[in-house]
Known about the structure:
This protein starts with a helix and ends in an 11-residue tail after the last strand. It has helices spanning about 1-25, 30-35, 170-200, 205-225; strands at about 45-50, 65, 70-75, 80-85, 85-90, 95-100, 105, 115, 120-130, 140-150, 155-160, 165-170, 235, 240-245, 250. By secondary structure, it is of the alpha+beta class. Strand 10 (about 140-150) and strand 11 (about 155-160) form a beta hairpin. It is about 30% helix and about 30% strand. It has two domains: about 25-170 and about 230-255, Lipocalin (Beta Barrel); about 170-225. It has a six-stranded antiparallel β-barrel with strand order 4-6-9-10-11-14.
Amino acid sequence: MVKISISYKNYNMRKLLALLYTFIILLTPGAYAAEGCVPCLQEGEQVQCCEHMFDEKGATCNQVIITNLRNIICKGNALKAYFTCKFWSECAKAGDRINFSVPEEIYTQEGTLLIPACSKIVATVIKIEKQRFPNKNARVYLNFECLILPDGSVIAMSAQPLTKDGSLKEGPWHTAGKLAAYTVGLGVVGAGAGTGFAFIPNPAKLGTGFAIGIPVGCTVGLITGLLTPGLKYHAKEGEAIKIILCENLDICKQENPCNPCEQ
């Protein structure tokens, strides 16, 4: 009985030590970062800490691994990119290059500079789905493939638009606006037609003409809007979109990154 009791106590002690060790490991910044974002360290590279991006809605990660040689923005992080010129889906084709800008510095929550102001992001059009019947909006698929820092350094990246299907398209408000335009427009036409028909035999029946013409016109307008092709995708110069990293983004540390915006 004594041997069994000692063995049981030793087992509990080992279990307690294992739990304590696991708890310490999870609280270690480098180890915690490695759980969600495992980098291949270079020779002489050491993980210093794990920092965090400011949360963007839709991002699946916010970790940034800081080493002595580079800053690694983990895949799943999201950031904003801005069109440098207007974009029309009907004028673009697969293979076209689209330039985006990062007008302001991007820092971690802890204060580490990740991407300098006036950096650029280059994307390639993978595919464009034209608008089609019934009321299907055009979709633009992009691959964000490189980040260009102000000093001219080119960094490979892999990212896509942060949307449900990874495409850019006009939002529900634009679609609703199109349907409203058709509905109101043909509603006015219907009201005018109903009024005209009511006025000819008897001017006193104008109210009846309105009552008949407006609902008929609005119904026809709504049906017409639903059965027409959807909207083309248009973006203005300076318009922002969110992109999400599909792979880790490695940015080598710079002692004195230049900023052409200050020149």
